[in-house]
Structures are given as C-alpha cells and as structure tokens.
C-alpha cells in the first residue's frame, strides 16, 4: 500500500491502515493511546484462534504495555548491551565465512544452491545459539520450530493450529529447561544474567521461555528474511552489487532492512477516542502499522523506490517506529547482515540468480522460502579458487555501541 494512501477504514472486523512514516512513529511512541496488549501486536491470526488464545499472547513481551513491558524489557536488555554484542563479533565472523564456504562446497554441478536454506538461515540461528548458550547442534530444531510457528498462512506448509501450538510448546519447554539449568548452576553467560542474577530482577522460567520464543522470530525469521531479500536486491541491481564488493559501505545493512521490511505490519488498539492523521479513531479500533509502506514514504525518503546502499540518512522503521517496542536486537541484526554479505562478497563475487524467489504467504512477515543462486562453477573449481585467494581481507570495524512449560494456552502466532 503506497504511503500516499494514508488511512483506510475497513468495514466490520477491519482496522485502520496506518501507512505514513510520521503516523507509524506517532502510534509507536504513544503506548498510552495505542495498546499492544489489548488485541496483541499480530495483525492477523490463524482464522480458528479463540479469544482466550489471543489473550494468552499477552504473556509475550511483544504484546505487553508499560509498566509490565518496562519491567521485562529492562531485564532482557542485559543480553543486548554493546559489550554483549561485541563479545559475539569474532565467533560470528568465523561462522559467517564457514557458512558461505560450506554452501560453496554443497552446490550442484553448476554451482547452484538454495540461498535461503544454505546461507540466510544459518547465521541468525547460530547468533541466537551463541547468545543464549544453545548448543549449535540444536539450531536445526529452533529453525523447525520457528518455521512451524509462522507458516500458518502458507498453504504449501499445511501447518495446522495444533502443529504450531505444539512447536511453540516444545520451544518454550526447551528454553525453560535451559533456564532451570542456569538457576541450578549459574555461569558467566547471558542466560544467567537474565534468570539468576543476584540482587537484580530476573525472568521467571516461564518468562524466559516466552522470551526465547519471541527471539526465535524477532532474531531469526526477520534477519533471515532481510538477508534473503538483500541478496535478491543486490543481484537484481548489479551496480549496487559491484559497489558493495568494491567499497563495503557501512550504510548497506540499513538499506537492506529498509528495502526488505522483514516485518510488514504490526497492530495496536486505541485505548480511548483520539485522532490520527485527520481521522477520528474510536476506543477499541485496531490500527495496522504498515512498516513496508512507511519505509517508502516519499515525504521522508528521496527516491524511495530506488535501492541505494549508500543512502544516508536512512530513518527507516524496519526495527519499529521507536517507543517501548523498538527492536532490542537492532545492533546484532545489522552486524549479522554486514558479516554475512562480507563473506559472500569474498567467496562468491560472481554469484548470480538462478530463479525467481518463492515467497512465503503471510500477513505480517515478508518471507522468502527459496532463492536459487549459482556460482557457475563446480564444487572442485570453487575449492581450488578459495585456496588460490587465501585468507579473506580484514572485515570493516564493528558498528559502535552495539522443565516443561506450564499448561497455559499457546496459539500459533509467531
């Protein structure tokens, strides 16, 4: 929906579509007027979900309002301090290069492979594993659980509400067991700081489980899709791909997020009668925040339909419109994007598309299921080329600053 369309009222069980950059920011920064808790932040659930199941989602930080959201966020943000992100830098850089090299070795006779499953999914999953102490061998389980939780709108996956709820329960149970282990035997890691820090507020085991469930989407699905869309954008804009390989601009990751807008939309619910963009909003009205439209608002972005990896400034809303729900993992996500594309440029400078992207059908995630690419070389030729190139050049400097679940109903929302 173009930003100029502004607001549209849909009849019956509809919502106001908020598409302008300024209005998305206003709603995001006024939680006293627009609640995440009332109807949650998810704009469209599985059609069979009950009201009780929707209300159960209020236990997830994404669907909280202050002051409860403030309490939980103050605890969770201990894991996303600049120091915590910097501590992951070396491991993630090594993993990025290894991921790309393994994809190179696994290609078919013409060097073709699926970029999504071989590259895009891996670094976000491994970053989560590194962040919260999940063994790397368990990353495939997190991938499978998160896929099942978000794919309810896509008929190809045929994911039922029961399968999605089971996946959510398994991930929560896995996370709760991890929290219980740290409470019993604290370690010098992020999980311990969240669940067993002395003389500080901590997350309960349930809260930690729900936090990891959120992280599996906010830190996995969204970054994976930004990487997939970013590769497609670079390969369909060869001038930008050549510029990236030559200069590695620090602005590239933000433009990839703006361009891809991995989260298409979230929603809020008006807590009282108010006004937005010249329209009267009644108490109880839902308002949909369309980040993909706001990120192409011509009142904010010059040539918004142009993919420009040197765009600066770039006040996109790909990490939210500010306010209490602004993405905690922004610095980590941008660093992951920087690292993986640096590794791709070093290893696959001649990468090309080998097919159109297959997109996920969904109401709030801008997902890509498959993106076939090709190096044009056989695995043996690629291995020989890597040996001839030797070590990759030094990367650019990092960005500054960076038990069983309870029987509560868990719906297929994430």
SSE blueprint:
Elements: E1 16-18, H1 21-28, E2 34-35, H2 51-56, H3 68-76, H4 82-106, E3 112-114, H5 115-120, H6 122-132, H7 139-150, H8 161-184, H9 190-195, H10 205-236, H11 238-247, H12 252-260, E4 265-270, E5 274-276, E6 279-281, E7 286-290, H13 291-294, H14 330-347, E8 352-353, E9 358-359, E10 368-370, E11 372-374, H15 379-389
Helix pairs in contact: 4-6, 4-14, 6-7, 6-10, 7-8, 7-10, 8-10, 10-12, 10-14, 12-14
Unreliable spans are: 1-12, 392-414
| Strand order in the sheet with the most strands | 1-7-4-2
Instruction: Give the assembly state of these chains.
Output: single chain
Estimated radius of gyration? 21 Å
Topology, number of strands: 11
Terminal Cα separation, in Å?
23 Å
Molecular shape:
globular
Describe the biggest sheet? 4 strands, mixed
Which class do the helix and strand fractions yield? alpha+beta
SSE order in H/E notation? EHEHHHEHHHHHHHHEEEEHHEEEEH
Q: What's the tally of helices?
A: 15
Strand content: 5-15%
Q: What share of residues is helical?
A: 40-55%
pLDDT averaged over residues: 84
């Amino acid at each position: 929906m173009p930003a100029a369309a502004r607001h549209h009222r849909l009849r019956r069980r509809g919502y106001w579509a908020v598409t302008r950059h300024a209005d998305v920011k206003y709603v995001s920064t006024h939680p006293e007027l627009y609640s995440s808790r009332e109807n949650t932040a998810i704009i469209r659930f599985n059609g069979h979900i009950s009201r009780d199941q929707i209300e159960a989602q209020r236990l997830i930080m994404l669907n909280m309002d202050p002051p409860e959201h403030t309490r939980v966020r103050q605890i969770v943000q201990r894991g996303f301090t600049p120091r915590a992100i910097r501590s992951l830098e070396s491991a993630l850089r090594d993993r990025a290069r290894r991921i790309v090299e393994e994809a190179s070795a696994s290609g078919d006779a013409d060097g073709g492979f699926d970029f999504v499953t071989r590259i895009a999914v891996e670094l976000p999953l491994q970053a989560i594993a590194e962040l919260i102490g999940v063994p790397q061998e368990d990353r495939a389980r997190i991938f499978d659980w998160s896929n099942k939780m978000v794919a309810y709108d896509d008929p190809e996956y045929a994911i039922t509400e029961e399968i999605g709820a089971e996946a959510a329960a398994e991930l929560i149970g896995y996370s709760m067991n991890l929290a219980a282990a740290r409470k019993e035997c604290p370690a010098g890691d992020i999980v311990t700081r969240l669940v067993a820090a002395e003389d500080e507020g901590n997350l309960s085991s349930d809260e930690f489980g729900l936090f990891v469930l959120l992280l599996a989407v906010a830190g996995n699905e969204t970054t994976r899709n930004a990487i997939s869309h970013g590769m497609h954008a670079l390969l369909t804009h060869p001038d930008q791909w050549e510029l990236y390989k030559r200069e590695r601009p620090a602005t590239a990751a933000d433009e990839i997020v703006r361009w891809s807008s991995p989260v298409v939309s979230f929603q809020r619910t008006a807590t009282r009668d108010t006004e937005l963009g010249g329209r009267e909003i009644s108490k109880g009205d839902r308002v949909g925040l369309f980040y993909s439209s706001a990120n192409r608002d011509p009142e904010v972005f010059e040539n918004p339909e142009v993919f420009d990896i040197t765009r600066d400034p770039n006040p996109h809303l790909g990490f939210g419109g500010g306010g209490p729900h602004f993405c905690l993992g922004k610095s980590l996500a941008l660093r992951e994007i920087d690292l993986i594309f640096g590794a791709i440029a070093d290893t696959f400078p001649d990468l090309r598309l080998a097919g159109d992207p297959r997109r996920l059908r969904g109401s709030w995630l801008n997902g890509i299921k498959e993106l076939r690419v090709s190096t044009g070389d056989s695995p043996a030729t690629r291995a020989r080329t890597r040996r001839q190139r030797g070590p990759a050049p030094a990367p650019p400097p990092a960005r500054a600053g960076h038990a069983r679940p309870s029987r509560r109903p868990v719906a297929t929302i994430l």
